[in-house]
Amino acid sequence: MTHTMTATSANRLSAKLPSSLSRLADIALNYWWCWTPDMISLFQTISPDEWERCGHNPVALLETVSYERLTQLTCDPQYTGRLEVLADQFDRYTTSDSTWSSRVAPQITSEHPIAYFCAEFGIHESLPIYSGGLGILAGDHLKSASDLGVPLIGVGLLYRQGYFHQRLNRSGWQEDYYTDNPFERMPLELQTDEAGRPLTFELHVRHRSVTIQIWKAQVGRVNLYLLDTDREDNDPIDRWLTGHLYGGNQETRIAQEIVLGVGGVRALQTLGLEPSVYHLNEGHAAFCLLEVCRLDIEKTGKSFYDVEKAVRDRCVFTTHTPVPAGHDVFSADLMDSFFANYWDQLGLSREQFLALGARRLGDPWEPFGMTVLALRLCRSANGVSELHGKVSRKMWTVMYPDKSEDAVPIGYITNGVHAATWAAPLMQDLYSQYLGDDWATQAVDPATWANVDHIPDEELWKRHQILKQRLIAHTRYKIRQARQQRGEDGSTIEATERLLDPTSLTIGFARRFSPYKRGDLLLRDAERALKIFSNQERPVQIIFSGKAHPRDEEGKRIIQRVIEWCRNHGSVNDRVAFIEDYDMHTARKLVQGVDVWLNNPRRPLEASGTSGQKVCFNGGLNCSVLDGWWCEGYQEDANGKALNGWAIGEDANTSDQALQDRIDSESLYRLLEEDIVPLYYDRDADGIPHGWIRMMKGSLKTNCPAFNTHRMIADYVAQVYAPGTQTSLAVTLAKVPQQNSL
Ligand SMILES: *Cc1c(COP(=O)(O)O)cnc(C)c1O
Q1: Closest ligand 1 atom to Cα of 599
Q2: Phi and psi dihedrals of 392, rounded to 5?
Q3: To the nearest 10°, the Cα dihedral for 626, 632, 638, 641?
Q4: What pLDDT does residue 1 have?
Q5: Ligand 1 site: residues with CB under 6 angstroms?
Q6: How do residues 472-520 score in pLDDT, each as one tens digit?
Q7: 555 CA to middle of ligand 1, Å?
Q8: Given this model, what pLDDT does residue 7 score?
Q9: Whole-number CA gyration radius for the chain
Q10: How far is the CA of 610 from the centre of ligand 1 (A)?
Q11: Which listed site, 29, 80, 402, 528, has its alpha carbon 20 to 30 Å from 143?
Q12: Measuring CA to CA, how many Å separate 58 from each of 25, 51, 93, 190?
């Protein structure tokens, strides 16, 4: 059934195309193209301008482009020839039975796949239903699962307006606004029944029945199902249940999490899918556990406590938050108003029900914790880096009174990134030449990356410089646009052309502007920062980007301080840039073009972080606090000399934030002044910085094999999805205990 529906949607689009281009339609409907550089280029060639205007959405592109242009392309044998080759590659990719997973873990089957639940998915900028690291990680998880052939489906929400857009007003204050996602013109397919009507199910939320429909996004071999309440037959308020990502108040939040968790399970049932494992990526989806219990009770007639073990055997959990306040909790009042009809169906009393979310059993008066529920009803739990695993065990000892901290059953699998998504095509091409055509599938093998030594320094540097120029062009374009929209004067707009210089040492800092990430740390000592930026012989420049959550006043103030700093230091205001409305497109440009990626969170608040890993795949260097993944990535030699990037600061083991901030910023300044800037400007007669390039190669060789999602997926298969599986991929970064019961 699913198969014919796919055909219908692609058919509709291909009917609009000349027959020799018809394959563009089904490929446009599968995000496989977004990590296949040749395919991106094929879409872009249709009309570079239209491609930009459509926000890199190939479905919208094909619907807008003139038929005349399409017929022109049919007369271009080179174009149709390239399409034929890629269509072939696509068919082989999507239909091959001989995958890594089918060899090492045949027990995971497509009849009973892994269901991966997450509140956000960052697949591509044309599907804006993500806010930051969690979503990007989820997107990369799906892509690597697809590449490796792991039978997996994603479950999430389709937000009519996604996450907010950011613009800065003239005083540097962030303004938030929303735009509609036109689902019908996106690479999505509404799931329908045999009669062509939308496939729906009913969910009780509060005191009303809500009708939910299901969309499918294809991510290679993986299907991502997205739930949508925006239907005319729903109450106007309920249509907004899937309106915004992380918007609204606690009441919106709990309602949304019910749609995601309970609704997600019901959606799979409606689609006739029977997962073998439910993977909750972060606590937002934890209500899914209740619904799995409810269905088991309904099916077997057993009691909650009798099905509990069988449910736990099928459910696994990944936590992402190293601070107690970051975990979703709901008051008993809210739980009452949303679940008063539900606990009966589980055969539980109110007290028994609320106890499921209380950290200590028998303490039903504290708020209902989503992480608590997940820890209680999942057979395995993991953090996302070694350090985060440790921090999580400590944070949750309270739930395990008879266990020592070390024995708390929360392990870790360190995050990674999807190499083909984040490595620039120009670099991928270099890797194909020097590491082998199959470098991406062999990315977990250190031997693959050892070949980096064969790349001539000049060649690596030339490509890196081109990528930096592209980043600068992108930055100028975005800033010019923003200045025009703010109505700034002509000379300011014109000055955009002189912003940044491709020969200067270029630092990037881009991520959500949460206060703990300390976006303005580098500017804290204004004079010292000024000296670094304004050095005539050895200039330094920095590009910022990132949004603060709409309710995060402190985050917005940090952005404003960055903007004000530039304004107050006119002499260097061509060396500091802020790109508004951070998204995956800007992220790609940044991680591909910078020399140095700066990351200075308050330790240990960055559970993993992944943006620095993307930089590694492009030869950029990390300068980061030893937090999250960088604790595992950073290497120095016996004399304490850095080999593959830099480590900022030292843990003063103090709760005095101002003191720790001073220590870290002092360390950052010294690193820049004494190590980073001198190394970058140490050139040979041809202007090539061989010492710097040695460091780039050191980073490629040590970081790339470890911090990619192929390694991460292999770890999830071997330790979480099918524990005990021997995989042929190097599985070195994971340690996840199994838990039978609390
Ligand atoms: C990778 C990425 C992130 C995560 O960045 P961190 O530094 O790991 O927090 C956030 N947003 C976007 C758009 C990204 O691509």
Answers
A1: 7
A2: -65, -40
A3: -50
A4: 38
A5: 132-133, 136, 511, 582-584, 587, 609-611, 614
A6: 999 999 999 999 999 999 999 999 999 999 999 999 999 999 999 999 9
A7: 16
A8: 55
A9: 26
A10: 6
A11: 80
A12: 9, 7, 19, 17
Distance, CA 307 to ligand 1 centroid (Å)?
Answer: 39
Q: What ligand 1 atom has the least distance to the C-alpha of 609?
A: 8
pLDDT of residue 730: 56
CA distance linking residue 633 with residue 37, whole number of Å: 28
- Which amino acid residue places its CA nearest to atom 11 of ligand 1? 132
**For residues 591 and 508, what is the distance between their CA atoms, to the nearest angstrom?**
8
Q: Which of 415, 422, 511 for a ligand 1 pocket mutation test, highest count of atoms within 8 Å of Cβ?
A: 511
Mutate which of 124, 134, 136, 517 to test ligand 1's pocket (most atoms within 8 Å of Cβ)? 136
132 alpha carbon – ligand 1 mean position (Å) = 5
What digits encode the pLDDT tens for the residues 28-68? Answer: 999 999 999 999 999 999 999 999 999 999 999 999 999 99
- Ligand 1 atom nearest 517 alpha carbon: 9
Residue 527 CA to residue 569 CA, distance in Å, equals 10
Could you write out the DSSP letters of every residue in 632-669? Answer: HH--B-TTS-BSSSEEE------S-HHHHHHHHHHHHH
CB-based contacts of 478-482 (< 8 A; 24+ apart in sequence) = 478/579, 478/580, 478/586, 479/577, 479/578, 479/579, 482/167, 482/168, 482/580
Contact in structure between 100 and 729 (CB atoms under 8 Å): yes
User: CA 345, CA 341: separation in Å to the nearest integer?
Assistant: 7
Ligand 1, atom 4, residue with closest C-alpha: 133
514 CA to centre of ligand 1 in angstroms: 12
Quickly tell me which residue has 């000024």 as its tokens: 530
The atom of ligand 1 lying closest to the CA of 583 is 13
Pick from 544, 610, 627 the residue to mutate for probing ligand 1's pocket: most ligand atoms within 8 Å of its CB: 610
Q: Would you state the pLDDT for residue 728?
A: 65
Element (H, E) at 213: strand 208-219
Ligand 1 centroid from CA 717, angstroms: 24
Whole-number Å distance, alpha carbon 583 to ligand 1 midpoint, is: 9
pTM over 0.90: yes
- Atom nearest to 546 CA in ligand 1: 11
Whole-Å CA distances, 17 to 13, 22, 25, 54, 476: 7, 6, 8, 18, 36
Specify the ligand 1 atom closest to the Cα of 614.
Answer: 1
User: Percentage of the chain surpassing pLDDT 70?
Assistant: 97
3-state secondary structure at position 594: coil
Q: How far is CA 357 from the centre of its chain?
A: 28
Residue 183 has which token pair?
């689902």
* CA 12 to ligand 1 center in whole angstroms: 35
Ligand 1 atom nearest the C-alpha of 133 is 4
Task: Give pLDDT, residue 2.
Answer: 41
Burial of residue 476 (number of CB atoms within 10 Å: 0-12, 13-18, 19+): middle
Across 595-623, b (16+ Cβ under 10 Å) vs e yields bbbbbbbbbbbbbbbbbbbbbbbbbbbbb
Q: How far is the CA of 511 from the centre of ligand 1 (A)?
A: 5
* CA pair distance 119, 377, nearest whole angstrom: 19
- By C-alpha distance, which of 569, 501, 486, 510 is closest to 538? 501
Block means of pLDDT (10 residues each) for the chain, 742 residues, are 54 92 97 98 98 97 96 97 98 94 94 98 98 97 98 98 96 97 96 95 95 98 98 97 95 97 98 98 98 97 96 97 90 95 96 92 80 97 97 95 95 97 98 96 94 98 98 98 96 95 97 96 94 95 97 97 92 94 98 98 96 98 98 95 94 87 96 98 97 98 97 95 79 67 58
